[in-house]
Design brief:
Order of helices and strands: HHH
Structural class: mainly alpha
Radius of gyration: 25 Å
Distance between the termini: 75 Å
Amino acid sequence: MYDVALKRKWDNASVLESAKAEGKAEGKVEGKLEGKIEGKLEGKAEVVKNLLLDFGFTDEQAAQAAQVSLSFVQQVRADMAAKKK
């Protein structure tokens, strides 16, 4: 009886450790993906700023050239206006 209870305790501890390790690994992967996405968006925002300021593109032209949504370009333009103030 004692052996069975001890085995269950060890099995539960093993399952818990495996779940923790798996969760930690998934968190690392998600963090890396989020960082890559944020980095790409920051890069796209710089491209959009250049298109708007240096080349005088309209929002629609900038969105098409940078391959982003119109709302993204409008957000970049709003951020630029807020920083001017």
